[in-house]
Amino acid sequence: MTKSELIDKISQFQDQLPPKDVELAVKMILEEMTQALVNNQRIEIRGFGSFCLHYRNPRVGRNPKTGETVELPGKYVPYFKPGKELRERVNAGIGK
Amino acid sequence: MSALTKADIAEMLYEELGLNKRESKEIVECFFEEIRLSLAENEQVKISGFGNFDLRDKSVRPGRNPKTGEDIPIEARRVVTFKPGQKLKVRVENYAGSE
């Protein structure tokens, strides 16, 4: 499922709202979530999961083309931990 | 700083998009529920600019009860992984705020 398919599905349940408004709402939800992570604010969605940042230590890497070593600074990466309901629903499909 | 929740997101839609409170709440519920439905049907979810929710089937592996030391196999299971998109990664990697 892609972002535009997700917008279509939500629109089917919100038939009193123009699809353009649903599209805007979805974009705003994603921007709000991104902005939270940019500020290192955790996101907690009950039954879905939580997002937070994890720190990666600086390391010495290598340019695969030239073989030259490069110092890579420490950085933050987004991390998602699925919630209980999501884990259970996804796992229930395994035998099917 | 407390965590961002569904209620906060719905409040933002109400204030900034002019939807009523019920519509705002429903859209937020529906947003996460549709992602869950897709994943429960073993279909990956790709949100461009944000990231992909992928599915991985894990096979059985030997496990152990850490309390009793008893060997218990860990059953085969399907798990969700999140792979952040390039845009999201670039935006968060330089976070330099004080911890």
Report on this model:
The complex is a heterodimer of chains A (96) and B (99). By secondary structure, chain A is α+β, with helices and mostly antiparallel strands. Chain A has three helices and five strands. Chain A has a three-stranded antiparallel β-sheet with strand order 1-2-5. In chain A, α1 (3-13) crosses α2. The longest helix of chain A has 20 residues, at 19-38. The model of chain A has no long low-confidence stretch (mean pLDDT 94). By secondary structure, chain B is α+β, with helices and mostly antiparallel strands. Chain B has three helices and five strands, in the order ααβββββα. Chains A and B meet through α1, α2, β1, β2 and β5 of A and α1, α2, β1, β2 and β5 of B.
Give a concise summary.
Chain A is α+β, with helices and mostly antiparallel strands and 96 residues long. Chain A contains three helices and five strands; from the N terminus they run H-H-E-E-E-E-E-H. In chain A, strands 1-2-5 form a three-stranded antiparallel beta sheet. Chain A has a two-stranded antiparallel sheet with strand order 3-4.
Mean pLDDT of chain B: 93
Largest sheet of chain B: 3 strands, antiparallel
Rg estimate of chain A, integer Å: 19 Å
Mean pLDDT of chain A: 94
Number of strands of chain A: 5
DSSP summary: helix tally of chain A: 3
Write the layout of secondary structure elements.
The complex is a heterodimer of chains A (96) and B (99).
Chain A: H1 3-13, H2 19-38, E1 43-45, E2 49-56, E3 59-62, E4 69-72, E5 75-82, H3 84-92
Helix pairs in contact in A: 1-2
Chain B: H1 6-17, H2 21-40, E1 45-47, E2 51-58, E3 61-64, E4 71-74, E5 77-84, H3 86-93
Antiparallel strand pairs in B: 1-2, 2-5, 3-4
Which descriptors would you attach to this protein?
heterodimer; A: 96 residues; alpha+beta; 3-stranded antiparallel sheet; two-stranded antiparallel ribbon; 3 helices; B: 99 residues; 5 strands; 27% strand
